[in-house]
Amino acid sequence: MPEPTISTCIPVRNGVQWIDAAIDSALAQTRQDFEILVVENASTDGTGDLVRRRSTEDSRIRLERFDRSVSAPASHNWAIRLARGELVKFLHQDDVLYPDCLERMAAIFDAHPQIGFVFARRHILLEHPDDPEAVEWARRHGTLHEGFTALGEVNRGEELLAQYLPTFGDSQYQNWIGEPSAVMVRRECFERVGAFSDRLRQSWDLELWLRIFAVCDVGFVDEPLGAFRYHPRSLTASNARVRADWLDLLWLYEGLLSEEALQPYHGMIRGFRRRQARRILRRQLGRLRRGDLDLRPLGAYFAHRARVARRTRS
């Protein structure tokens, strides 16, 4: 197989219900210089066997597997390391790409070498379209890009960052970009700023996108190029039910403060961090009063802060 230009990376865990549709949508692209890299995360539902069969039927599909389950950021980072293309397109197991997705996104990279990141609008598929909560979620999250003003096909990353970063001072910050399935990234960007942080539970993608915006320009396609499937078993819905992301903002600030290209914003980010730390400590006191004595997550965060402070002093 010739060296692909685009690697469509599909991290999957227990996705046997949807993975065929995801792979089919990745194979049906109008631009064909791609590979499909499936990173199978120790599934227990037969996903691995299904993908192994698909990979024997089509040489464009490559299967890599974890023997034990790892976090979502870790599986995405492994996909980045294994991808052979100069452009990396993410596709989640329960999402689908429309046939012209790769062609439309890659055309922006081809025409504009300064572009490092492209995102597009997406449709939302509801597994339970009669569920009022799901309908309300789709209404609120169907047009995320509208947080930005006057998006064009080519946008200065620094200008988008200046609009978006200040909103992360609010604990109710929003996703203005979309899920990883709505994104394509030039490999060079990962080499410059690093990969996804395993410390975040929900917003690990946004933290990386902000760091990428600081070093490159951003493309946008003002049409849906795929569909995000919202259902009760999705990672988004699961994290929301248990509020797994309660420390995400603090870890997000730590990631941004480690990025040299964001130096002009470090003062603002430290101010955000002070306010959020006070909010978190108040909430933690409430948990302790209710008998939740697990201080390990917060302890790990402050231990990290102490290590960074020691390195800075030395």
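[next item in queue]
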Amino acid sequence: MTAVIRTVADLRAAVAGWRRAGDSIGLVPTMGALHEGHLALAARSRTDNKRSIATLFVNPTQFGPKEDLAAYPRDEAADLAKLQTANVDALYAPSVAEMYPAGFSTTITVAGLTDHLCGPHRPGHFAGVATIVNKLLLQATPDSAYFGEKDFQQLQVIRRMATDLDMPVEIVGVPTVREADSLALSSRNRYLSAEERARAAVLPRMLSDIAERLSKEPGAVVNEIAWGFRQLEDAGFDRIDYVEVCDEATLQPVGRVATPSRIFAAAWLGRTRLIDNWEIGRQ
């Protein structure tokens, strides 16, 4: 049975009991609307640790003023049922007041890694992510925390934060879980109409094609990015925020693939913003 915990005090009490028993602890931060991608994180946590905690908190500070905070899908009962099936020990589902009490005035900013990709398109987003993840890590004090590679920029930001702040936690990236047509699983996919969902499959196909070609011709970055834009435009994407090839460690754009790199893209279908990335050289 998955215990539901609402407060920092109760979470720390549960963790303290597990620590006294010598148990290792894994943390899976989520905003709910759970799908197989989240459950893959939970499965990895269960493999690595004696105890696993999933969090459910729709974090208001990572949403911009015109983004989908109010409409973001919420179904705690369904999420809890999935976590019970996955044998997660606890669901930590605090209120906004618990996480951001009166007078809260601290923000964590990770520079450099947020200069490109989603950073310019979502001002303040990564500061909100870094701040809430920092709080969750301090509240749960896990041995390991698990994040999906679909949000690769987020993963790298969290890794940098944990390293820079000397946090005693391993940040573990888990490969993206995909549909049969390679579309990355995302809670926001449910916003897509049937017609938009069919077009969405062009995004991962474009990324995988570019990654394959750049693994053979690493100097063709500029031409491949232009080709990627055309593919998305021809598929009827309403807006393209970016198609970029970046170094994996620094997330800085590269003109030639000479280090471990990925091809990243973000584009809109209707009101749904899709992001994805593909490792260059992946077979």
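[queue empty]
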